[in-house]
Amino acid sequence: MTRVRIDLFASLDGYTSAGQTPDHPMGEDWGRLTTAWAATRTFHERVFGDTSGAGTTGVDDSYAAAHFEGIGAEIMGAAMFGLHTFPDDPDWRGWWGDRPPFGTPVYVLTHTAPRPSIPMPGGTTFHFRNTAVADVLAEATEAAGGRDVRVGGGVGTARAFLRAGLVDHLHVMIAPVLLGRGARLWDDLSGLERTHKVTTEVAESGTVHVTFAR
Amino acid sequence: MTRVRIDLFASLDGYTSAGQTPDHPMGEDWGRLTTAWAATRTFHERVFGDTSGAGTTGVDDSYAAAHFEGIGAEIMGAAMFGLHTFPDDPDWRGWWGDRPPFGTPVYVLTHTAPRPSIPMPGGTTFHFRNTAVADVLAEATEAAGGRDVRVGGGVGTARAFLRAGLVDHLHVMIAPVLLGRGARLWDDLSGLERTHKVTTEVAESGTVHVTFAR
Known about the structure:
Chains A, B: This is Deaminase reductase. Chains A, B: One of its GO terms (molecular function) is 5-amino-6-(5-phosphoribosylamino)uracil reductase activity. Chains A, B: Residues 4-192 form the Bacterial bifunctional deaminase-reductase C-terminal domain. Two copies of one chain form a homodimer. Chain A has a single domain, classed as Dihydrofolate Reductase, subunit A. Chain A is 25% helix and 24% strand. The first copy, chain A, has helices at residues 30-38, 41-46, 59-68, 78-81, 133-144, 155-163, 192-195; strands at residues 4-11, 71-77, 105-109, 118-119, 125-129, 148-153, 169-175, 197-202, 208-213. A nine-stranded mixed sheet of chain A has the order 4-5-3-2-6-1-7-9-8, with helices on both faces. Chain A binds chain B through residues 12-14, 176-181, 186-193, 198-202, 206-208, 210, and chain B through 12-14, 176-181, 186-193, 198-202, 206-208, 210.
């Protein structure tokens, strides 16, 4: 049974990263939100390709490992792919590098004209879709072949799936900082604890892991 | 050395209780925010006067016990005393009952005309002050005689002291619910982690305890 899963980062005051620029494609506050995540051994292995065993192995790492497990397809917004960075360059292949860390079909939601799919080394293929979230989810679920579908972000894309009631498992990593700016994660989600079971756990880093699962 | 301490309740989405009415002096959402707190053995003993040993004894209770330890004076807003409930009744003694659970001088901030202090059974005396927060803090610190001063709330009063940089120890109990309404706790407090050390801990109840201490 395919589940729809989301992992997000937020600050204690409920903000996700703000200040996206070409130099900071994930936003200027991204580093402060993801310090503990990027320090995990799993992240070192899966994203940096560092197999030396470096990185933390505690609670944060157990969530990082789960993040990469059992995913058969990914959905993300255009900004997360990097489509807005060079919107007029048909050869731009996003900012995930030559070997993106997905290894699955990745459906990029876009309001711009369709463009051809981009197969990448490592098993990732980027597809571009201008359809309703339920429709792209149906396609991704089919492609996932029984594994899970991850909605990778950004927060606007994640909230669109959450508002539509399509998400089975939401995991939020709350960094113990107060950003005071950014996109507000929790707006429109009040009462989610009535349809999903909430669990909370604190990592050695101080990161608070909150999970809503049904 | 007197410290200024605050304990507050919030939801995951950063709201404190909304919907204050005479029937719900702390707001309609208060119960959802304080379930785990009210379930502690310390709360049963100190607020209900229940010495049977009933109540939880885990992480929540350790914070509840700390809440009542070492306080020499209290400061609260007029709404928390209950001044707005019967504003024209000079005999109204607030809604904390015949034996308020403070046992210290309590300074009630008010913009209305001064009224006489009210001594209550159990060692609590309510004083009414229409002065700047720094001035009432100086008076409360003097009265505390070396013990700590607690700013009891509500959230507007707490934030006034926080914004003024007067708080040494802020403890927030975050209930794993999304209220979607209420007063926003974190506004204006961004960067507090730069002046205060942040610690996070999860209780058996799922409550997230966040402490900012300097």
